[in-house]
Amino acid sequence: MFIRAYEPLEAHLRPNKVLILFGPRRVGKTTLLQKTLQHIGVKYKLDSGDNIRVQQILGSLDFREILSYIEGYELLAIDEAQNIPHVGSALKIIVDQVPGIRVIATGSSSFELSGQIGEPLTGRKRTLLLYPLSQEELLSTYNRFELRENLPDFLIFGSYPEVWQTTQRQERINILTEITDSYLLKDILAFDRIKNSRTILNLLKLLAFQIGSEVSMTELATQTGVDVKTVQRYLDLLEKVFVIV
């Protein structure tokens, strides 16, 4: 088990504030949340934004129903909160109306992209970005010699936590293939209603071939068959969902 830089997560919690933990898919947000709740020491409610009933209750923005939902709890934790309509406004109701309540909400990068939490939670939130494992975090499992020995593999396979829970090369390839096929572009395609992912995939391939070199927007537009403004928009979205940095 890797120790993440933000641990202990409860050190970042404040009364009547929302702690937003977001970042790319499959980097360990849910694992970190569950690990925190195991020793939080207060009565908490853990729910998922995928739960239709939770979507109905919080999405309704009905004061009475929302306050009844959270009654008796000192901490509310919602995983995949981006799936709840008007989630920012719902969490604002909770932190404004329940004295001392603390809230943790995790979500993929679309959570921030969609703008659901921006204005409603102004002055009421703290945001933490969780990335794949850093070298410092890897030191919780490997020593410095092992990090140097494994550097080629880190460069090839990256540092998604799941990848480093196996030593089998083919299994690592399978994990990365699944992440790519199932998650990599899911946020950007859903957010911007992009029907054809081929252009984005072609754009990513072109960028990969030009690592370390200056990139021409005009050249990218010509090779992908779209205009420069579209290329700029796609690059902006790819950066916001952490596909490129």
UniProtKB/TrEMBL annotation:
InterPro entries: AAA+_ATPase, AAA_14, DUF4143, P-loop_NTPase. GO terms for molecular function: ATP binding. Keywords: ATP-binding, Nucleotide-binding. The keyword ATP-binding applies. Signal peptide: none annotated. Residues 15-133 form the AAA+ ATPase domain. The keyword Iron-sulfur does not apply. PANTHER family: AAA+ ATPASE DOMAIN-CONTAINING PROTEIN, CONSERVED PROTEIN. This is ATP-binding protein. It comes from Anaerolinea thermolimosa.
